[in-house]
Here is the input.
Amino acid sequence: MDRVSIIRPRSAGAYKATDHRIRSALEKLVLRGPSTMAREDWEHMASEVRLSYSRFHHLFKEQIGIPPGHFAKHARLWEAKRLLDERFVPIKEVMLSVGFVDASHFCRDFKALTGLSPNSYRKRQWKHTGTK
Here is the structure.
């Protein structure tokens, strides 16, 4: 299993970033919650931690193992996974709440991360926990 697929962005403390600027950026990302980020947002984050965008991107990837955009996407998908554990939340609502607008992209990315479609994941979780 590659490093990307096992990342579970639950807290900034879970990562071993040695550069204080990258740790600060991780904390900001976790506090921001699951949202999409455009390049301008990343450039702003880089300037907040007093780095150029290219240096920020390089350091982030070096220390976390994936680029910042992939980290944010995985954080959104792990939040979707958490929400799908709550059976009363419709899948479409989960998809929209974590920043996806296209169901096919959401399903493809969710399956790439978890190995299951959102619907299959939910069914398996319900079966495993004994709920209907």
Summary: Helices lie at 20-32, 39-48, 53-64, 68-84, 91-97, 103-114, 118-129. The chain is about 65% helix and 0% strand.
